[in-house]
Design brief:
heterodimer, A: 205 residues, mainly alpha, 6 helices, B: 148 residues, 5 helices, 70% helix, 0% strand, elongated, disordered N terminus
Chain lengths: 205, 148
């Protein structure tokens, strides 16, 4: 994510005069909301039925996508974007970032809710469980990621999207807002790798 | 009243130094709620000592209320944009907090732990929309005054 946002920041200054592509009229892609709604309903059903398979599915699928998207975007998409032309970077980011506003919160709530319920089901939430310490470690990791994502990244993301909708986006402001992605990229990446270590440790006991 | 009728096309966003530190206060409130939540979750389903989470919740609540009051006293601000973003973000985070509340109720969490968790989720569902709405509106042209 850091590379993408750095690229947007770089691209935004010339965007002032070259009328870059803007986000769609709606900041949040409305077509994605029914899909998110279906995922939430499925999550509720998984919890209500206390199905081990369904809970495992939501936790593994949601968590795998969450971690995978974070690392893939930061390590693969970012450098590719860096090699693209400035208008192409802005055009990609203006379409990509709104979708992330729907995808990531949906993945996060599916992962967390099913993970909690799975821990209750398997008993790993009990303090007597041999992996209880790892479970608590996962809470701390999620807590750190939540503070960064909700407190720093999402506000900056939204502010940039609104700025891009202006007739003349302020490139200097966008660049300043995007620096938060650069500052937090290392922490987010480390937390995602820690998540993989903790989850595989819990999974194998 | 539409955004267009309220927005001042020539108005610049208020300088940062004229705005209260809503971002810092909101992030602090969010961090306190999350720390309290982790503390509670790490003890459940056993009984939880509530002193620390209550203190964290009270501090977070004070930070949120303080932020809201301080922000309400800003004379010129993009209030229309603020409330549009706040409303939609509130809808989203009420759904998310509601999902978490449902999980705790489903699992039979009760008593003081449920009260503290529920209030923590309430602060969580309010402070994030406040932070998002402020982060967007602070860079938008302020609304005209009612008489303007």
């Amino acid at each position: 994510m850091a590379s993408i946002t750095q690229d947007v920041a770089v691209a935004a200054a010339p965007a002032r005069t070259s009328a870059p592509p803007r986000p769609p009229a709606s900041i949040v892609p409305l077509a994605g909301l029914p899909i998110a709604g279906v995922a939430i309903v499925g999550l509720i059903i998984a919890v209500a039925t206390n199905s081990l398979w369904a809970l495992t599915f939501f936790h593994i699928a949601g968590g795998g996508l969450w971690t995978g998207i974070d690392l893939f975007v930061g390590l693969i998409i970012g450098p590719i974007l860096g090699s693209m032309s400035i208008p192409a970077r802005v055009e990609f980011s203006a379409r990509f970032m709104p979708k992330m506003l729907v995808i990531m919160p949906t993945l996060v709530i599916c992962t967390l809710a099913s993970g909690w319920q799975l821990a209750r089901y398997l008993g790993t939430i009990e303090s007597a469980s041999p992996v209880h310490g790892w479970v608590v470690a996962s809470f701390v990791i999620v807590g750190v990621m939540a503070i960064i994502a909700l407190g720093l990244l999402e506000p900056a993301n939204l502010a940039v999207l609104f700025e891009l909708r202006k007739p003349q986006p302020n490139g200097e402001l966008i660049g300043r807002l995007m620096k938060v992605f650069v500052y937090t990229a290392g922490i987010t990446g480390a937390m995602q790798v820690a998540t993989l270590i903790v989850m595989t440790k819990i999974g194998t006991g | 009243m539409s955004a267009a009728s309220l927005a001042d096309p020539d108005g610049a966003p208020p300088p940062a130094e004229q705005l209260p530190p809503i971002t810092a206060m909101s992030i602090a409130a969010l961090a306190l709620v999350i720390i309290g939540g982790i503390y509670l979750a790490s003890h459940l389903p056993a009984s939880v000592p509530l002193g620390l989470p209550l203190a964290l919740l009270a501090a977070a609540g004070l930070l949120f209320v303080g932020s809201a009051i301080w922000l309400s006293r800003v004379p010129t601000f993009a209030w229309h944009t603020f409330f549009v973003v706040f409303g939609w973000a509130l809808l989203a985070y009420v759904v998310i907090a509601g999902m978490l509340e449902y999980i705790f109720l489903y699992d039979g969490t009760s008593g003081g732990a449920l009260v503290v968790l529920s209030l923590s989720l309430l602060v969580y569902a309010l402070v994030i929309p406040l932070l998002l709405a402020f982060s967007v509106a602070r860079y938008q042209p302020p609304d005209r005054s009612p008489g303007g």
